[in-house]
Amino acid sequence: MCDLRITVSGIDLEATWTDDAPETRAALEAALPLSGQATRWGDELYFDVPVDVPAENAREVVPEGAIAYWPAGNVLCLFWGETPASRDGEPRAASPVNVVARLEDVGPLSALEGGTAVKIEAL
Question: What's phi and psi for 94, nearest 5 deg?
Fold first, then answer.
């Protein structure tokens, strides 16, 4: 069962919360719905969110489809492939992120060009 609807450039995607960073998840969940104009960095989109939490089980290498909070910039990131920081093809953040959810399908994100509007809401 999915927990979140992510709308990117008019495309609806679904995601499920993870237990990797429960305090970060709680802060983001309380702030829903979240939206913003995202910037693209390789196969990652990120946008500002009104949440300020510290690193929690943070890591640089994340799974494909990860939705993660970047404490260094107070932004939410969606990863679906390589970024400029990647090595050996894995999705990699610029610095450690708190993984909070996972996209069910990342395929539609590959067609994006540049930044776009993103909205995240509870289902």
Answer: -65, -35
Question: Which two structure tokens, joined as six digits, stand for 7?
Answer: 């709308």
Question: Which domains can be identified in the chain, with CATH numbers?
Answer: 4-122 (2.40.100.20)
Q: pTM to 2 decimals?
A: 0.96
Residue 26 half-sphere exposure toward CB, CA atoms < 13 A: 6
d(CA 90, CA 92): 6
In contact, 44 and 17? CB cutoff 8 Å: no
CA distance 4 to 6: 6
pLDDT digits (tens, 9 = 90+) for 17-71: 999 999 999 999 999 999 999 999 999 999 999 999 999 999 999 999 999 999 9
